[in-house]
Amino acid sequence: MRATYKGRVIVAGEASGEAVVVNEISFYGEVDPERGTLIDGRSIAGKVLVARRSRGSTVGSYVILALKYNGVEPAAILMKRAEPIVVAGAVLSGIPLVDMLPDEFFKKVRDGVQVEVKSDGSVSVEVR
Amino acid sequence: MELTREEEEILKGKRGEAAAKALEVIVKVGEALGADRLIPIRHAHVSGVSYGNIGEAGVKFMEDLASRGARFSVPTTVNPIGYDPEYPPEFNVDEHYIRGQSRILRALKAMGAQLTLTCVPYETSAFRSEILPRGSHVAWGESSAVVYANSFLGLRTNREGGPLALLAAIAGRTYYYGLHTDEGRIPRVEYRVEAQRSLDEVEAAILGALIGEQHEGPEPPALHARLEGRLAMRELSASLGTTGPHGMVYVHGLTPEPLPRGWRPEERVEIGREELESRLARLSPPAPGDVDVYFTGCPHMTYDDLRRLASLLKDVERVRGEFIVAIPREAYIRALGDGTASLLYSRGVKLARSTCLIVSPYRVRGLRVVTNSYKAYFYLSRRGAKVYLARLDDMVKMASGAW
Lengths: 128, 403
Description:
The complex is a heterodimer of chains A (128) and B (403). By secondary structure, chain A is α/β, with parallel strands linked by helices.
């Protein structure tokens, strides 16, 4: 079954890709800006990064910028609440960013499922 | 967003192309977050200064702004770089790295930065000479400094990403949102720690992590706890900023601004002594013989801390293993002047000026590191080190064989 959720558009854009799900993320220290991989080895390049919240270094914005510069940026970033560090990074690198998605979305979304992001902030995903 | 006439004019290029571009990004970020206006700032602190942290993308971003004539319109301090300029090889950097780092410093200098190269801007004379009144709006990067500024200095800043703090320094403004607003600074949830005595820096750091991990904002957490001193305040700030998205903690008795009359927390959370102790026990160091590196100064140590360290080491012949202390250059100069630095050197301590193990490519993979910083624990663990926590006195005891 496909479910659609609505969030707040921070950087508008259309994107689709496989979900890579983490609970929280510090872009600095937990993302390799050259390879576009997470610290556990999963790639976020061209994928839809789902992170309930972020943490850590204010250098995170530069890591997002570097992901874009190196062509390994995520297709979109989806969050419960985006903070200024991620917002600045996404705005500067033009990566679609939607936040304030309902808790239900974060409960249902699974790693590897196909996610579609629309420019009005609606996110549709295959759920069980 | 409602803009003043002057802001409209900056956007149209009155203060040049770079200022227009800077303000445009700030407006965009502010609008995305729901801010309805901008606020003038009195000071900025730029993070993302180490070449290894920001790479070519970051260098180009800064050089592009500088070459378009960008100038900081408020006093602006900057974070540490990727190596100690007086001893680069120790930090595992090559020619390419040093060239990249020099380009960053050139661009920042051209824009008018004060090259403080420290993550504790509030401890520098460059910052102190500004004499900012409480409640001043600033735009700071560096998560630990943001928490410290909001919680202990009465300044107002969001957790600005490195590039945004830089753009705000150029524009002289940032978006009015979150911790800049009165209502955004009022806690809803209060944490309380039962403790007979003040918390030392490691206990404060663990507490910061426990709160950072569980607190859900956007309001800052409130905290009832006694902290041993400024070192504990810095370590609490650093761990809170590392483990969550929070830019402030309202510490009763230490946070300078009053809460609204009749304020009561909507929710109280008790953090048990056992909870603190069990986390601490999990991170307790191994036998001194198994330690490769002792590291302190995340955030940077101050001149006063160096004096304290010197007095702890006074009767020690020589430390065993690497003992690295990260400090601002300014603290080094003072310590050089009164003999503190030479005492530390004579005991085998290494002073890392204008850098640290986190922002430099210092080789830590596979090493066993003991530190008094949860922030250092967090980042160095992610670079393959095995990291343990101990307070500064205990680090000295371990390194001097008195453990």
